[in-house]
Amino acid sequence: MSNIPFQSIDWSKIEKTEHQGETGIAYWQTLQFAGLRVRLVEYSAGYVADHWCQKGHILHCLDGEFSSELENGEVFFLTKGMSYIVSDDLSSHRSISKSGVKLLIIDGDFLKLDEHQ
Fold first, then answer.
1. Is the separation of the CB atoms in 115 and 87 below 8 Å?
2. DSSP symbol at 116
3. Mind telling me which InterPro entries this protein's record contains (predicted)?
């Protein structure tokens, strides 16, 4: 990962991209750095992710609520002010939002599984 100089982010100036779910839509605003991705993500009401994700994330719920479903059947319900963290390849998970949610999601090389621990 390279050094990132101080910068403020005006999210209103970051383009939104649309990502279709199994149902509903996810809107991403993304900042990409070497080895680091920072996203402001909104899931529409009725959103169900269209895939099981293996990627690690640090995720913080800014507004609304959603559930993170693990492929093993466990479900974690998160509301405004709650977070989760997971490293790459440690779970298969997908997001579901009945009423819509706004999230800050950070991922990158620092979440790669360290097989030497």
1. no
2. T
3. DHCW_cupin, RmlC_Cupin_sf
Question: And the tokens for 61?
Answer: 């719920």
Per-residue pLDDT of 44-74, as tens digits, reads 999 999 999 999 899 999 999 999 999 999 9
**CB-CB contact of 80 with 62 (8 Å):** yes
**And the tokens for 39?**
């996203």
Nearby residues of 116 by Cβ (< 8 Å), 6 or more positions away? none
Report the CATH number that the domain containing residue 50 is assigned in CATH. Answer: 2.60.120.10
* Confidence band, pLDDT 50/70/90 cuts, at residue 116: low
Q: Which domain holds residue 95?
A: 37-111
Whole-angstrom Cα distance, residue 114 to residue 86? 12
Q: Where are the alpha helices (DSSP H) in 1-117?
A: none
Backbone angles phi, psi at 64, to 5 degrees: 85, -155
What is the length of the chain? 117
